[in-house]
Amino acid sequence: MFLTNKTRLKIKDIVKRISLDEHVALEERIYVEKFAKHNSTIWTWLKKANSLRRYGKQKSDGVNGLIQNLGLDGLETENHFDPKNDDLADWFSGSPDWVRRS
């Protein structure tokens, strides 16, 4: 999905406000989610912003910092994959379309 410079800057502004736990209107959140469903870069920006909002900046030299910088789930134990109890396909069921297609 091609983004204009104006759209990219608008999305980056919204994502930055999310990461700083500032006010973001529902319409803005929906706007970013629409693009995140089809664009892996925006999806990663949004995951990182939510992680920063929830957990603050993690030390970059630790595992939590790596997880946060990559935009992965895993800072909370309920998101950890348990091969004894979890089905891998179910674990990825909440992912955007581009992840499930991989």
Structure notes:
The chain is 57% helix and 0% strand. It is built from 6 helices and no strands. The two termini are 17 Å apart. The mean pLDDT is 76.
> What proportion of the residues is helical, as a percent range?
55-70%
What is the N-to-C succession of helices and strands?
Answer: HHHHHH
What is the CA-based Rg, rounded? 15 Å
Number of strands: 0
- Largest sheet at a glance? none
Mean pLDDT: 76
Low-confidence residue ranges: none
Q: In DSSP terms, counting alpha (H) and pi (I) runs of 4 or more, how many helices?
A: 6
Query: How would you classify the helix and strand content by structural class?
Result: mainly alpha
Distance N terminus to C terminus?
A: 17 Å
Q: Which shape, going by the Cα principal axes?
A: globular
Write out key terms for the chains shown.
102 residues; mainly alpha; 6 helices; globular
List the helices and strands and how they pair.
Blueprint (H helix, E strand, L loop, with lengths): L4 H15 L6 H11 L3 H16 L7 H8 L17 H4 L5 H4 L2
Helix pairs in contact: 1-3, 2-3
In short:
The protein has helices spanning 5-19, 26-36, 40-55, 63-70, 88-91, 97-100. 57% of the residues lie in helices and 0% in strands.
